[in-house]
Design a protein that fits this description.
The structure is a homodimer.
Chain A (H helix, E strand, L loop, with lengths): L2 E6 L11 H12 L4 E5 L7 H6 L7 E4 L2 E4 L1 H9 L10 H31 L6 H23 L11 H11 L11 H11 L2 H10 L11
C-alpha cells in the first residue's frame, strides 16, 4: 500500500527541518518505507479539501490506503509499529517508548512553542522583551529535568526508539536559540540523532521545500 | 496485577477535576479496572523518590507490576488497550483514536495551558490584561476548528473512544472561562462526556483530594 505524505509546499523555516513533516520523514526513513510527497501551499492548507483531512489546517497528513492520519505523534507511532528500529518487541518497552513520545510533544514542546510565539507572533508587542526571560526559564526548567534524566545514557530507554526520534525533533527547534548549549548532554543527544543516516535522508528530503527568511528560533 | 496511581495529595483546582490524574481515573473507570491511590504532596513531588519515577516532578504516575508510566496520554492509551469501551478492534480505528488523543494534548491543550499560565503565573505582570485577548483568540481558533469537525456528531469518530476521553478532559479546563459557551456543540460534547457514569465515578474519586482556593480557569 503506498504512503502519501502531505507536507509544506514551501516551509517557512529556511531549511532547518523544523516543520512537523520532517519528523514523519525521519520515521519513514528509519522504517525503510517508501513514500510520496503531496506539497500543500499555505492557501490550500485552509481550503475545504485539506481541512477535511486535517481539521486544524496544518501539515503533515499521512495517507495509506483507507487510513488518513494527522498529528505527527500519532503518525510516527503508526509508522513505528511497522519497524523494530523504532519500537522494541516487549509490550512494556513499547509503552515506555510511547510515553517519551508524549513527553516530547506534551511536556517539552509546549514551552518551546511559546518561544516561537513570543519571537514571531508577539515580537512587536510592548511586552516582548520583558516577558522573554520567563519564556526562556520555562524551557530551561524542562531541559534541566530532561538532562538529569538522560544523564550519560545514549538514548532515553537503552536503545533508540520513536520516543527519542520525537524528543530530538522537538529539541532541534532550540538549536538556533543557544539554549541547547546550556545543556551539553542534551546537545550531544541531539547530535547523535542528527547523525543517524535516516535523519540525514529526512533532512535532505525537506531542504528543497524551504524558502524565505528563516524564522527566529 | 494491581494498579497504583500516584496523584495529588491536595489538588490545587478546588475540586473541579482538572488535575491530570482525573483523566487516568476516568479511563480506569471506563475499563472497569481497580486501582490504588498513592497521594503525593507538592514537596514530595520534587524529591528523588518521585523524580525517579516522573523526571518532570509531576503527577500522575501509573504503576502496574514492572511497568511504570508517566504522561497522562501514554497512561490512558495503555489502559485503553485493555478495554473495548476505549479502543475499537479495527487497527485503523485504533490509530485514529490515538490521533485524537494526540490532537487533544498537542494541538488543543497548549493554548489552553497558556491561559492558565496567563491567569496564574503571569497574572501580576504588567502585560497581563493587554496580552489576554491574544491568548483567548488562540483558544477560540482551535475551538472553532474542532467544533466544525465535530459538527452534530456525538463523538469524534462514531463511537466513544479514548480520544474523546482526552479531548473532553482538556476542554473541561475551559468550563470556568466561559469560552466553551461560545461553542455550543463543544459544550454539549463535554456535557455528554461528563454524563458518563465512569466520568462521574472518577470525578467523585478526586473530590476528597481537592483543597484550597480554586485556580482561575
Amino acid at each position: 500500500m503506498s504512503i502519501i505524505l502531505r507536507c509544506f509546499e514551501r516551509s517557512p523555516d529556511g531549511g532547518r527541518g523544523l516543520a512537523r513533516d520532517t519528523r514523519v520523514r525521519w520515521a519513514l526513513e528509519e522504517a525503510g518505507l517508501a513514500y510520496e510527497l503531496r506539497p500543500v501551499s499555505f492557501q490550500a492548507m485552509k481550503e475545504p479539501e485539506h481541512m477535511a483531512l486535517q481539521p486544524f489546517g496544518q501539515i503533515p497528513v499521512f495517507q495509506e490506503g483507507d487510513l488518513t492520519l494527522f498529528e505527527s505523534g500519532a503518525i510516527v507511532f503508526h509508522i513505528a509499529q511497522k519497524s523494530p528500529v523504532l519500537l522494541p518487541d516487549d509490550a512494556n518497552a513499547r509503552a515506555r517508548a510511547l510515553m517519551w513520545l508524549f513527553a516530547a510533544v506534551n511536556t517539552v514542546e509546549p514551552p518551546i512553542l511559546d518561544l516561537t510565539i513570543a519571537r514571531i507572533v508577539e515580537a512587536d508587542k510592548p511586552w516582548a522583551a520583558e516577558r522573554m526571560p520567563l519564556v526562556l526559564d520555562r524551557i530551561r526548567n524542562r531541559l534541566g529535568q530532561l538532562s538529569a534524566r538522560l544523564g550519560d545514557a545514549e538514548w532515553l530507554e537503552g536503545s533508540f526508539t520513536v520516543g527519542d526520534l520525537m524528543m530530538i525533533s522537538v529539541l532541534i527547534r532550540l538549536k538556533m536559540s543557544g539554549l541547547l548549549d546550556e545543556f551539553p548532554k542534551l546537545a550531544a543527544y541531539v547530535a547523535r540523532g542528527e547523525a543517524r543516516p535516516a535523519y540525514q535522508r529526512a533532512y535532505a528530503s525537506q531542504l528543497p521545500t524551504s524558502a524565505g527568511a528563516p524564522l527566529a528560533g
